[in-house]
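for the record, two folds in this file. i put them one after another cuz i was lazy. first one right below, seq on top, structure tokens after. the second one comes after a little note so u can tell where it starts
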Amino acid sequence: MAMYGVKIFTGNSNVQLAENICRNLGLPLGKALVSTFSDGEIRVEIQENVRGADVFVIQSGSHPVNDHLMELLVMIDALKRASARRITAVMPYYSYARQDRKNKPRVPITARLVADLLSRAGANRILTMDLHAGQIQGFFDIPVDNLYASPVLLPYIKEHFGNNIVIVSPDAGGVPRARAYANILNAGLALIDKRRLDANKAEVMHIIGDVKDKTAIILDDMVDTAGTLKEAASALKNKGAKTIHACVTHAVLSGNAVNNIQDSPIETLVVTDTIPLRPQAVLCPKIKVISAARLFSEAIKGIHNEDSISSLFEIQH
């Protein structure tokens, strides 16, 4: 179906994903200058007419996070002032999502702050994938479409990891996702009980569930420093897991992440391309990237055509 009146733009966070989405839709990537002035301020110039257009801005919250967030905000403002009919911020990875509540005194709820900034800048809709916490959708007064990575991760799991598998949730919050995958795959379910010591450090306590002689697949929405992932894999190995893999939506991979993955018992880390891999991660033979471009393309097409896209929000077979 032809998509008339649609314009797709991107900042500098994930140009390859934006190009792949445009290729799937049969649309050109919109022309825009997104750079910096000599003092580091974000410079944006939309270089084509967007008056009355249905505009989608693809920009992930990847490193450097603050620069890419500011690019998105400035682009939205430029498009609004250029009289775009509707502006959808496509954030494959929603930055600051881990700061979603006050878990101790005198800390911010930055996920809410980012939601307010996006709305105030002029976004009419948000499209994202695997939010760290589902309640973030309630921080917005505009529609939020939160896709799941299951349509791209499940086929890979079925094809590459055999039948004797157990899906492992790295914490209690991930159990609903892990249970849904386990039900679809007719697999076992396990939970890692851990005590968090710091924002990026966790001590694994013990495994709840049977993993002995099974292919263990750790399922999570993001991998940051991979410290938790390394500890989880070691705990699974100690409990007799035959092989260990991880399937994660967002490859943040900051700090010593790649070394942690290399030094861990994990054989494969499967991630999507919501965040482009850093150079060191590209060279890591354990990391496998599968694309979510088709899923975002389908969502963009559905949003533009005012079709239901509820099927894209479900954990799919």
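(here's the note) second protein begins now
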Amino acid sequence: MPKVILINPNQMKPAVAPVGLDYLGDALQRAGFDAEVLDLCWSEDPLADIRRRLEGERAAAVGFTIRNTDDCYFASQDYFLSRYKLMLETVKASSQAPVVLGGAGFSVMPEAVLDYCEADLGIWGEGEAAFVELVTKLAQGESIYAVPGLVYHRDGNIQRNRPAFMPLHAVEAPARSLIDNSRYLSEGGQGSIETKRGCSKGCVYCADPVSKGRSIRLRSPASVADEIENLLARGVDCLHFCDSEFNVPDFHARAVCEEMARRGLGAKVRWYTYASPVPFDDDLAGLMRLAGCVGINFGADSGCDRLLRRLGRDFVAADLVRTADICRRHGLVFMCDLLLGGPGETRDTLGETIDLMRRIAPDCVGAAVGLRVYPNTAFARWLRGQGPIAANPNLQGAVADNESFVAPIYFVNAELGENPLSYVAGLIGGDQRFFVGSREEAGQNYNYNDNSLLVNAIRSGRRGAYWDILRRLRTDCR
């Protein structure tokens, strides 16, 4: 069988399971390849481990996933691609096999990442079908340039083919055997699963529709439940559903919950998810609770209707009030994630948002300041229409020589003053429900990048979404 080695370079802590590689490896094995994951998550010397594994190996291809190009966090602005580039140089020096980039972070900006990393090939979008087709052609010495989603060099330019999205409703549940999921639970606090791909929402800043497609493709509820049972067999009983929005469309969310409840999985697994404030009602909340859901992260963004419209959201502040009431009625812990500092944000609108959060009283509020600008989004197109990136007073971060936005650039409305983080922290005061982004204080850094407080809490036995672990640490309850 032809050998394919898949590399996970992500070393963020707490450890986040590379679910995409697990899915991809399963697809490769079903297609007859000998797939193996080189997981560098816990490596103390990634370059040496790459050399040790690849030297002398005659692989058909090496896949290198880029889950995130950076930590998407204005307070820290940690850029991962510079480290990944060094790893890729070692990969190319250690193996003659073609190296193929992929992953969600790569798919957001494939041309820019391929160029920055000086790589030859990539697959943007999902890889279970496209990557298998690519390595099959590579192994057989056939032309690869018609492979869907392929990103490659030709005539001095980087080109990419249109993707061919998979009919997920017909896909069998993956075995989840390629990575050490039980270790990821013990050191990362949660496992991962998805019930669908794609997002049809119109949020102007969001990269999910760019990387995963704007058409929502649904897995069968039976397949989702089968996968959960596969994970339970490996001891993974706390999950995060990593769909863009679990409840969109709501009929599918209901069907998944009903299948889980029918199999009695609600009594065996605890899970968290992202969800939209609409559509959300008592019936869905009750089904989610019955299926084992214990916590929901709502992308609230703002408490000001005018700003919500500018961000392309399809709900208003009154929907947040209604959603909070529903969660409390059904005993669902919930978080509201705020995205502050966007176009039109003022100190008055910040106050309006913080006041609304205090009124609806979520169990936890994430107050992130600064919108990461991603290429190929409506927000990036609007910004380019405002003139040169480096001259825009609302942009912070790597603004010089970065027209592609490959390095992190953040929009923070200049009207908020020189230190908007401090201003937001002052509005919040000592309210323990709020988390304000801070690199210096691990307890504030709820985005999980190098958070020693979370790492130690998980090591001591805490499980769940990171915002919920931090919340429980503050209230001293499990």
